[in-house]
Fold this sequence. Notes:
By secondary structure, the chain is of the alpha/beta class.
Amino acid sequence: MGDKIKSIDELSAVAADARAAGRKVVLAHGVFDILHVGHKRHLELGKRNGELLFVTITTDRHVNKGPGRPVFPEQLRAEMLAGLEIVDAVGISPNPSAEYVIEKIRPDIYLKGSEYSAEAKDVTGRITTERLTVEKYGGRLLFTDDITFSSSNLANLALQIYPEEANEFLNALRRRITIDDLTAPLDALASKRCLIVGDTILDEYIYVEPLGKPSKEHIISTRYLEREIFCGGVGATANLVAQFCEAADLVTVLGAANSQEDFIRSALAPNVNLIPFYRDGAETTLKSRLVDPGYVKKLIEINYLTDDPLMAATQAAINRKVDETIADYDMVIVNDFGHGLIDDALIEILCSKSRFLAVNAQTNSANRGFNLVTKYPRADFVCIDEPEARLAVADRYSSVDTVVEKLRCRMHCPNFIITHGRFGSVVAADGREIEPIPVLTRQIVDTIGAGDAFFSLSAPLVGSGCDPFLAGFVGNAVGAMKIRIVGHRHYITRAEVVKYLTSLLK
Length: 506
């Protein structure tokens, strides 16, 4: 069985020899997480149409079906497939897309499930690319037309891949909605123009190995390993918004002394239009963390920031730009980290002139108690975490429901979502009972940016008329995806979101 598992280069050589001998090569590629009778018939069809059947699987780190997937790691998945008599060889692809293995193996027949036969419905858009790659080398696609099952559905039914409360929630939700109830409002965002306003933050991770306490000082000593820097803050919000909306214009402040603008532009999605202003005599805000790489545990944070009010001329230029263009946007999304970009005059413009205003005002170590969401007298949607909500109404101990009601009294806003970490979130929309949504995973790699990811997609959804509860569920899902990513090493794509939502509802 082990002899069947080969590298992609080895499969390429075997395929070349087979073609030279006039033998027809069939390739099937996928995750193959939980083998079932649908897979068996799928592969049998392939074998009937060729002499050699190769199966390549997606490596674990590129399986984008959300937290908890794949259920089985790549070596076990490869071993299960190699155990099938009809399979001649198995490979593990190091690449996120199938084009790589198609280029290497150049199959005569590329086998796909019937769900890919309608290219327009493929959320990834990859089936077209795969077909063109196959045809480039004289091959063709062959679609299975037989009984189909879903590994995601089987995992959801038979395996405990979600927390218990999430399982109960999802079972009830599957009886109420289908994936179409989520993809329709996501698709509706495609024509929306968004103005995003907020602080740019560079997140630096300095990976170190803790050595212990020096003999002569009461400190912790570490050894430097490597460094990684990400575009965070409002840049992360803009990247996710841009995956769904037609336009994402980003108004922000960079440091004039060391803006790192080239790096920031390179980290933004292609359809994010950066509109920068500059703080004289300062560097772009950078939050540097010493990180133990073993479990991505942060040891200490150093903030390089200047958060005093901007110079009057700079602030006036920002306010004028927003005031002159705000009517052009379907919605305005504010990521207020409290680092000096947004003054009272800009708040007045945002609150009085936005067609739809979504606000996230964050509390952090530099502004605790001074950046409360209640400084915005009105909004159409507010999304903050539970500690921020409690600070905003000076209520430490009451229930979340009570805190939300107090927020309603202090702000004119019809839609609130309060996130609270491992407890999930609560959705409070005017005229409805407060609805809880449980956390969808407890598999945490890094929590940084999870709340921003939640806000980044739930805000435009509510802005386009989506039911706030469904927007909250999508936000929870995106937050669950984000905590599996170190820092902002990768921004979540539309295809990844839709695939994860699809797997949740199967």
